[in-house]
Amino acid sequence: MKKTIVIIDDDEAILRSLKRLLGTNNHVICFSDPLSAIEFAQQNPISLVICDLLMPAISGFAVLEDIKLLQPHCSRLLITGYAELESSKNALTNNIANMITAKPWDNFELTMLVEILIENSHLKITQGLSNVNSY
User: Is the Cβ–Cβ distance between 57 and 35 less than 8 Å?
Assistant: First the structure.
């Protein structure tokens, strides 16, 4: 069964590139409007969110925070340019993102990272369900 990945970036070329890269083995839904992505997350299960840091309407930090509240088991990957990489490290320490990667990315490394994050998401769900069943 294909896992759902939501990609949020204001750059249409980035969205097309990531959809082409990740869409073979996953159900990839792209949003250039972060608020639409949050709305989607309110209604649909997501395995992974890949979100740009800098967008005109709302920051990637805020988007990931909202999705974390809506779907705590969903893995979150922050994607950013090298210039913002250092300043975005607090997203890891504050548990806003599970991982950070830089633009431009290496396709092989990104696909491996996506697989790990999706597996992590499903492990959290499985552990959560087993904890509920054990009471």
Answer: yes
